[in-house]
Design a protein that fits this description.
Layout (H helix, E strand, L loop, with lengths): L1 H17 L14 H34 L15 H29 L8 E8 L2 E6 L4 E3 L5 E3 L3 E3 L11 E5 L4 E6 L5 E5 L4 E5 L5 E5 L5 E7 L11 E7 L1 H17 L5
């Protein structure tokens, strides 16, 4: 029991280091509705775990206090207690069924792809950078002005400002579908505040849909080890108002037309 208390205290302390809100239990503040669902499932799993732990620890303490050895006489033996056997057989099935229901419900919502999203973004993940295209607006977001790296190609170099990262901009409170592809190896599209990631697998187009709920600037990264410069495969995500997004799209289209069309 002392060790369990120490571990619990350590978990609470380290959780506080990752998040200012202990109710999130180490999870970041969600930036999407799907992230809110993920956070809710995470919190529910902890509540269920604490309930089970309370029953188990309570049973252990009860046995230690009321059934500790008081002499050499063998205590009364109880076998084949049908109500107790039914309880510890049926109760786990009920618990598993409840957890399965909520997991399946939330997973179905998180992986749902509406037929007509407000914005579609084609994401091309490649060693070791990102390309973002907006087919609805005939816009191929040009790569940021990377510094050339010998025998590697164009990619971000540590020490350079985040403004040189590939930029992904999406509107808040609108459904955004990401179509993921990769021409070389397996990559993984991950923004921590989405509390969700999905792989980009060569030859197998993948997709997912989110609805951002708050504006802000975030760092996205590849979450699948994809080669020697995997750690440099970063991008900047900006969630802006719909008006700001439309203005940005017009600016990008003007720059694209001035440079000679889509890339």
């Amino acid at each position: 029991m002392p060790s369990a208390a120490v571990l619990l205290g350590l978990a609470l302390v380290t959780t506080g280091c990752q998040s200012t809100d202990l109710t999130r239990l180490g999870m970041p503040l969600p930036a999407s509705r799907q992230g809110q669902v993920t956070l809710s499932m995470w919190q529910g799993s902890w509540i269920a775990a604490f309930c089970v732990g309370f029953v188990v620890w309570g049973g252990i303490l009860w046995a230690i206090i009321f059934h500790r050895k008081r002499g050499d006489e063998l205590p009364r033996q109880v076998r084949y207690n049908l109500p107790i056997e039914i309880l510890y057989t049926v109760l786990p099935f009920i618990m598993i069924g409840v957890m399965f229901y909520f997991t399946a419900r939330d997973e179905s919502y998180i992986t749902r792809n509406p037929a007509h999203p407000d914005v579609v973004v084609d994401v091309i993940a490649e060693q070791w950078t990102w390309q973002f295209r907006y087919p609805q607006y005939a816009l191929s977001n040009p790569k940021a002005p990377y510094r050339m790296v010998t025998e590697v190609g164009q990619m971000w170099v540590p020490g350079e400002p985040a403004s040189r990262l590939p930029l992904l901009e999406i509107p808040v409170n609108q459904t955004v579908r990401f179509n993921l592809t990769s021409p070389d190896v397996v990559h993984s599209f991950w923004v921590a505040a989405f509390e969700f990631k999905r792989q980009a697998v060569p030859g197998f187009p993948n997709r997912f849909t989110i609805t951002p709920i708050r504006t802000g600037t975030f760092i996205g990264r590849c979450a699948e080890l994809c080669g020697v410069y995997h750690s440099r495969m970063l991008f900047t995500l900006k969630i802006v108002t719909p008006a700001q997004f439309r203005q940005w799209i017009r600016q990008q289209q003007s720059q694209q037309n001035a440079s000679g069309g889509a890339q």
